[in-house]
Amino acid sequence: MIPIKSTDRTPTEIQDLQAMAAKLLETARKLPSGQDRHNALQEIERFRARITALQHLDFSGMAQSPQPYDLVTRPCTIHAGHFRWDIRENGRPIQSSMESFATEQEAHADGRHELEKLIQVSRF
Asked: Measuring CA to CA, which of 17, 27, 107, 124 is 20 to 30 A from 33?
């Protein structure tokens, strides 16, 4: 497990964690398909979920309002056995993956990365 030691993080520290997660994801995507890659992507996804949870806490510990976005993975209609992701805002599709992924986990991890970028932009 990738440690995040405290919920008392500054915005800069959270950005540093996000950058670290992006580098880890980039490296994991270069691994050959197989169990090691799958395990690495799962661990990175857990790390990113924890970062997202930290982002949704304000610094007094109170939860902020939930985001209106959903991430959905689905079978690819072009490449059999592959997967894609969709991001929806209030149930309406707003962004879809351009590429297909060999596993649902890979599609979800990539979609999660895009969702986090979308959430960051929507906060400005």
From this structure: 17
Place of tokens 């995040």: 4
Phi and psi at residue 26, to the nearest 5°: -60, -40
**Ramachandran bin of 24, using left for φ above 0, alpha for ψ from -120 to 50, beta for the remaining angles:** alpha
Q: Is the pTM of this model over 0.70?
A: no
Q: What number of other Cβ atoms are within 10 A of residue 68's Cβ?
A: 11
Domain of 103?
11-122
How many whole angstroms separate alpha carbon 40 and alpha carbon 45? 9
How do the pLDDT tens digits run along the chain, 124 residues long? 444 444 456 778 778 888 888 888 888 888 898 888 888 888 887 777 777 666 655 444 444 445 688 899 999 999 999 999 999 988 888 899 999 999 999 999 999 999 988 877 766 5
User: Within a domain: residue 31?
Assistant: yes
